[in-house]
Specification:
The chain is mainly α. It contains 15 helices and two strands.
Length: 304
């Protein structure tokens, strides 16, 4: 059954489609969905429904967030795909390209918003508790916030593609230094919503231009990002959980912190390492069955 499904997907996939990038993006989206369920869970309380986080009561689940917080991979792959698409469709004009990309991004969101808007109106008209309705609607809508950030970065692709990720990374570090080290206002952290996710997006742009390197770069990002994150958690007071926990004094995600960004760098490195491994796995299969093995994806070839 699985083999038949794989063959059908293979036949329906255009020849120029990069399967490695698609796989990384699907994995990232799955992690985002599951990660938000880790953060938010409905709880019945005095006849009403409220939203809380399992991590608030089971902090030992924090390592699970390391697996399910895959937002950086989404922006990493998205940066690569956006730059490739913009270069390919340069003749169409930037505004038209942005409108088309934005429409594709939000098209699946429209039915969700319509259905849950109708559910909210119907349940309120039926006399449901407003707090319960709000909790349900928030549970569905809250995971979509990152699409707004991604749309903004996509619209700015001609500019972001020219940035080196060190720039936004330094900006995140500066904001955290002012917030946590110098007692600055907490609202400064929201600057990191843009700069924090700009880091993997810029990495994706470098990947698209073939300037990111392969196995060694992937391992350097993985090990360096993991070491930096561990240091920030152990000695700088950052939370171990890579998702927000209600009531916690500091959240790594709302807004993003330097620890979340360095953790994202480790994930991007892992993605590059996976592509490199996929390429060499293809090479070994090709040596055994040269006429039957499919061609490697573009992402795998560039990760050498």
């Amino acid at each position: 059954m699985i083999g038949d499904l794989v063959r059908r997907v293979e036949q329906a996939t255009p020849a120029g489609r990069d399967r490695a990038v698609d796989a990384l993006r699907a994995l990232a989206i799955l992690g985002v969905v599951l990660g938000h369920w880790l953060v938010t869970a409905p709880v019945a309380d005095s006849g009403a429904l409220r939203v809380t986080s399992p991590l608030k009561y089971m902090p030992w689940l924090a390592p699970v967030s390391w697996l399910l917080q895959t937002m950086a991979v989404f922006f990493f792959v998205g940066g690569r795909v956006a730059v490739e698409s913009h270069d390919r469709d340069r003749g169409a004009g930037h505004m038209r390209w942005t409108a088309a990309r934005t429409a594709r991004l939000f098209r699946p969101v429209v039915p969700v918003l319509r259905v849950w808007s109708a559910v909210a109106v119907a349940t309120l008209a039926a006399g449901a508790d407003p707090g319960t309705v709000y909790a349900l609607v928030k549970l569905v809508w809250s995971p979509m916030w990152f699409l707004v950030v991604f749309a903004a970065l996509t619209a700015a692709t001609p500019l972001t593609a020219r940035l080196h990720p060190v720039g936004p990374l330094a900006a995140v570090a500066a904001v955290d230094l002012v917030r946590f080290g110098l007692g600055g206002p907490s609202w400064l952290g929201w600057i990191n919503v843009g700069t924090g996710w700009l880091v993997p997006y810029c990495l994706g742009a470098l990947w698209a231009r073939g300037r990111l390197g392969g196995r060694m770069t992937g391992w350097a990002l993985l090990l360096g990002g993991a070491a930096a994150t561990a240091g920030l958690v152990l000695w700088a007071g950052y939370p171990a959980s890579m998702v927000g926990v209600p009531g916690a004094p500091v959240s790594n995600q709302a807004p993003p912190t330097l620890a979340a960004v360095t953790f994202g760098l480790a994930q991007c490195g892992a993605a590059l390492a996976v592509c490199w491994a996929a390429f060499h796995g293809y090479e070994r299969r090709r040596e055994r069955t040269p006429r039957e093995a499919p061609a490697p994806s573009q992402a795998a070839r560039e990760s050498r």
